[in-house]
Write a structure and sequence with these properties.
The complex is a heterodimer of chains A (about 260) and B (about 70).
Chain A (H helix, E strand, L loop, with lengths): L1 E4 L18 H14 L6 E5 L7 H4 L3 E4 L5 H11 L4 E7 H7 L1 H9 L5 E6 L29 H4 L5 H6 L4 E8 L3 H19 L4 E7 L3 H4 L3 H15 L3 E4 L15
Chain B lengths: L3 E3 L9 H5 L5 E3 L11 E3 L10 H5 L5 E5 L1
Antiparallel strand pairs in B: 1-4, 2-3
């Protein structure tokens, strides 16, 4: 029998702590697939963030370092500059990257640090019990916005990919979804491209993955995927916002690290 | 060997593979595994086309797909 689908080699064969239907597992597999396909496993160093994905160091079969909350891009910068041959990626949720870590991600992009950032956006703080995140949609109910997010009080949700695409040093910025087989295939291609950009020394790459949180949204995994397609994708449009192929602009930064 | 091999002990019963299977060849089993979840199982191997979608959507990396 010919094998049509195999579990990626860069993932350890261990059960994860993620809730049933959590798309972290799908994104882990896509990252591991990209590392496998590009043959980068010996050089890959991951940086884990704080949040549900903190234990990703137990799930990836490559070198890993845990960073303080929001500081994964800073730690990745240090690793990349100290070990120039390493392929460094961070794996951060929206509570980590879009909230406490906003300064680090903006400046890492600004310096065009030669790292790859996997940003998982599920519009809520998952690990701490479903509080409102900067990415929570207007009207979305969470434990700290029981009547739905009020823009007059909490502002509009933060669009990280669009914001970083305006920064000259950001070489590759894309937003993908993980809510259908077709979306997952496109997400895999974007993540692979982000690693290729880094391997070619072209600078900062980030892939924002729209994700689900069935537990804190109070939905079944299948309903949560439909909710992303109906509510999140209209506000967080998918696509590539910045690519190396786009015409060079005078302000395009020099890759670092 | 079956076309879809499921590591039932690690399955969390989320049902995504069952939902996305284009041929409805998968279903949730009545039994429960050691973690307390109903695992997915291949119930209609004849209609399975080995497309691999169940493997790709599985968040827990418990499914591998084979083609005869």
């Amino acid at each position: 029998m010919k094998q049509v689908y195999a579990v990626p080699k860069s993932l350890r064969p261990v059960p994860t702590h993620y809730c049933p239907g959590c798309t972290h597992g799908i994104i882990h597999k896509l990252v591991a697939d990209a590392i496998d396909e590009l043959g980068l496993r010996d050089r890959a160093v991951g940086v884990a963030s704080v949040g549900c994905s903190v234990f990703s160091y137990d799930y990836f079969d490559c070198d890993f370092q845990q960073a303080a909350h929001g500081r994964a891009p800073a730690v990745a910068t240090g690793i990349r500059r100290a070990v120039p041959d390493a392929i460094v990626f961070t794996y951060q949720g929206d509570g980590d990257l879009a909230s406490i870590g906003t300064a680090e991600i903006v400046h890492a992009a600004m310096r065009s640090e030669n790292i790859t950032v996997i940003f998982v956006n599920n519009a809520i703080y998952g690990m701490t019990g479903g509080q409102m995140a900067p990415t929570t949609l207007v009207g979305q109910k969470t434990t700290t916005s029981p009547r739905g997010r009020q823009p007059a009080l909490a502002g509009q949700p933060l669009r990280i990919a669009e914001m970083l695409a305006t920064i000259p040093g950001a070489t590759y910025v894309a937003r993908v979804s993980t809510t259908s087989p077709a979306h997952i295939a496109r997400a895999g291609r974007a993540i692979k491209k982000a690693f290729q950009v880094q391997a070619a020394g072209e600078g900062f790459s980030l892939v924002e993955c729209l994700s689900t949180c069935p537990t804190n949204w109070g939905m079944s995994p299948v309903d949560a995927m439909a909710w992303v397609e109906k509510n999140m994708i209209p506000y967080y449009p998918l696509g590539e916002f910045r690519t190396p192929e786009m015409p060079e602009t005078p302000e395009r930064g020099q890759a670092n690290g | 060997m079956k076309k879809v091999v499921i590591d039932e002990a690690k399955c969390k019963g989320c049902g995504l593979c069952v939902h996305f299977c284009p041929k409805s060849a998968l279903a949730m089993a009545d039994r429960i595994n050691s973690r307390g979840y109903h695992p997915a199982e291949l119930v209609d191997e004849a209609s399975c086309i080995s497309c691999g979608i169940c493997g790709r959507v599985c968040p827990d990396a418990v499914i591998e797909v084979f083609k005869p």
